[in-house]
Specification:
The complex is a heterodimer of chains A (about 240) and B (about 180). In chain A, strands 1-2-3-4-5 form a five-stranded antiparallel beta sheet. Chain A is α+β, with helices and mostly antiparallel strands. Chain A has helices spanning about 1-5, 10-15, 20-30, 35-55, 65-70, 85-95, 105-110, 115-125, 125-130, 200-210, 220-230; strands spanning about 140-145, 145-155, 160-165, 170-180, 185-190. Classes of the chains: A alpha+beta (about 240), B mainly alpha (about 180).
Chain lengths: ~240, ~180
């Protein structure tokens, strides 16, 4: 019998797109010619969809602030907290970061997607840069339908660079604002499309720029506060 | 070094919803799941190297999470039940959710919750997280053939539950 030659694992791998082209073609032809096989394959397809439906609930809810703060460190130096277990996290949680800043959940409150050009324009506008200059790392500001969050500040030669992300419904711009004294430029801004994990291209571009600019370690909360108070005056 | 991890941190924050999802399938309650996410992030940030060369960040974090779970959580919480809060949240956020779909979720979630952890993890990593079989094998330190046999068994159980849902009057004849 044909069915005996095709195992459940093979049918499942076919449905999951795990077979190489030749094998997929062979199994596809067998399925097309055999209603019994087609039925078995369909069960694997349906079960995958059903598991997706059953477990995707709640996945678009914004993560709790303490988890975001725990990762970002909210501008404080993370290194001393490492290995402290729960205590370090409690400190981080007390800072209170807006979790919606990176776009989860926020999307459902938006009117619609922001166009590519306009999100980039928003992310690099002078008015946003001025507002971000008054915002410490971990803080976020709303810009139209998008949200901008500062994630770190670095001393560079002759001034500062600040890392931030501007997120809209389906895309995000990650950028560096560099300068100080009321004059900011954006030497690096990378647009990332929506959907899942992104390759590290933005991260790389940003790192390369920071290296070139001779950036030091991130400012801690106190250092950042002082810099904000001084209007990011060149050091 | 602090700088390199800044960008890694951003990527980790972006992965939080998926980390929480996998954690819930492991740990049962939403509270324990978030504890597990927290520990996973903490562990990941405390490594000096970050993910190994060529490894996906999500797969690396899933691996850390599952190892932490096996090391600590399973001992504390031998009975695993999927948390219902997530389903209720979704139902609450979308008025169009129909009762039929909720019944299917409940049936499917009950089957998933009843699976052994090794089958459940394979199922969630493939069907929900979209990992390749090869990537799941790396996350779980098992051969790819084992990934496939566990996945096929779990999917069979799901399919049986779906049959039960669509044909509610049928006797539970094919008891597998």
């Amino acid at each position: 019998m044909t069915q005996a030659k095709v195992t459940d694992e093979m049918l499942m791998a076919f449905v999951d797109g795990e077979l190489d082209a030749a094998e997929a073609e062979r199994i596809g032809a067998l399925i097309a010619a055999d209603a019994g096989l087609a039925g078995r394959a369909e069960k694997f397809r349906q079960s995958r969809l059903a598991v997706q439906r059953a477990l995707s609930a709640g996945r678009d809810e914004p993560p709790p602030a303490h988890l975001v703060a725990g990762i970002l460190g909210t501008g404080q130096d993370l290194a001393p907290r490492r290995g402290l277990g729960g205590r370090g996290w409690a400190v981080a949680a007390s800072v209170g970061v807006l979790a919606a800043a990176l776009g989860f959940g926020a999307s459902r409150y938006l009117d619609g997607p922001v166009g590519e050009a306009s999100l980039m324009a928003t992310a690099t506008s002078g008015s946003l840069l001025a507002r971000l200059a008054e915002t410490p790392a971990g803080g976020s500001v709303a810009v139209g339908p998008a949200t901008a969050m500062v994630t770190g500040s670095y001393p560079v030669e002759g001034g500062y660079c600040r890392l931030y992300a501007v997120s809209a419904e389906t895309e995000q711009v990650r950028a560096l604002a560099c300068g100080g004294d009321g004059a900011w430029t954006v030497p690096v801004a990378v647009l990332e499309g929506g959907g899942g994990f992104q390759p590290a291209s933005a991260a790389e571009a940003i790192d390369i720029y920071l290296d070139t600019a001779g950036a030091g370690a991130a400012l801690d909360a106190a250092g950042e506060q002082a810099a904000i108070a001084a209007g990011w005056a060149a050091r | 070094m602090a700088r390199v991890s800044e960008t890694l941190k951003l990527e980790m924050v972006a992965l939080l919803p998926r980390l929480r999802g996998f954690a819930r399938s492991l740990a049962g309650s939403a509270h324990d799941a978030d504890d597990l996410v927290q520990q996973t992030c903490e562990r990941a940030l405390s490594t000096t190297a970050g993910p190994p060369e060529g490894a996906r960040l999500d797969a690396w974090l899933f691996r850390i999470m599952r190892n932490l779970f096996i090391d600590g959580y399973r001992r504390k919480r031998p009975v695993v039940a999927l948390d219902e809060a997530a389903a209720q949240n979704l139902a609450g956020s979308d008025g169009r959710v129909v009762e039929e779909a909720r019944l299917e979720w409940q049936a499917v979630r009950a089957v998933i919750a009843g699976l052994p952890e090794d089958q459940r993890s394979v199922l969630v990593l493939v069907c929900v997280e979209g990992l390749r079989y090869r990537e799941v094998a790396e996350v779980m330190d098992i051969p790819i053939g084992t990934v496939m046999s566990r996945l096929a068994r779990a999917r069979g159980a799901i399919a049986a539950a779906l049959d039960g849902e669509t044909d509610a009057t049928a006797q539970r004849g094919a008891g597998e």
